[in-house]
Design brief:
By secondary structure, this protein is an alpha/beta fold. Helix content is about 55%, strand content about 10%. The chain has a 4-stranded parallel sheet with strand order 2-1-3-4, with helices on both faces.
């Protein structure tokens, strides 16, 4: 499986990614992780940036941040990543298309580095090298997101209370405009983690590759 999970902060994309990873390890064997380091200031996988390094990054100008993120995404489009039949991301280019114009100071429509335009370029490349990629929009009701923000605020949280509807609409727009043809939506407003995983597995069935099915069958036979 090649998956891209996207959605507004607090809808549960990271939790779902971790849950899918655990399921896949049991059902398919091997390692099955996600790149989940696209939201500024969360731009590093382990080892994480130190507080000092994170402050240094945040002090960079919008132009330098734009350049870093552009190179960051291009690097993850290389054959070294998309040659892997299980290359998975949370947010990736869709995060940039939504959050950069709103919070990062770059990437607006018509500007150099227009992130929505760049997203379509990224997807054209993905469709060429990995047409089996599945895009999954994770959603939740605005009031649910606000409740989660209040009850469990993220360190260095990004989305502002007054922007929730705007961010939800922006993710839906990018999802609808996406060149990735294999896609579906999940709503976590009232679903438990286990229920969301079950819904994911049901909707993934027609998108599993022959290789995926063979690995699942082989793993089941070994058990």
């Amino acid at each position: 499986m090649r998956l891209i999970l996207v959605g507004c902060e607090y809808v549960g994309t990271t939790t779902l990614a971790e849950t899918i990873s655990e399921w896949a390890k049991g059902a398919m064997g091997g390692n099955f992780g996600f790149h989940d380091h696209w939201k500024i200031p969360h731009i590093s996988h382990p080892p994480e940036l130190t507080d000092e390094e994170q402050d240094q990054f945040m002090a960079l100008s919008p132009n330098v941040k734009e350049m870093f993120q552009r190179y960051h995404m291009e690097y993850h489009l290389s054959p070294g990543f998309y040659g892997d039949p299980h290359h998975n991301s949370v947010g990736f280019h869709i995060d940039e298309a939504v959050y950069a114009p709103l919070y990062y100071g770059y990437g607006k429509a018509g500007e150099y580095g227009d992130r929505s335009q760049a997203a379509r370029k990224t997807e054209a490349h993905i469709m060429e090298v990995a047409p089996d990629t599945v895009l999954i929009l994770v959603r939740a009701a605005p009031e649910v997101i606000r409740q989660r923000m209040k009850e469990n605020p993220h360190p260095n949280g990004l989305v502002k209370d007054g922007d929730v509807e705007k961010v939800l609409d922006a993710f839906l727009e990018e999802y609808n405009q996406s060149f990735i043809r294999k896609k579906f939506e999940l709503d976590t407003s009232t679903a438990t983690v286990e229920e969301t995983l079950s819904e994911f597995l049901e909707q993934m069935q027609p998108h599993l590759t022959d290789s995926d099915r063979l690995r699942i069958m082989s793993r089941h036979a070994m058990k």
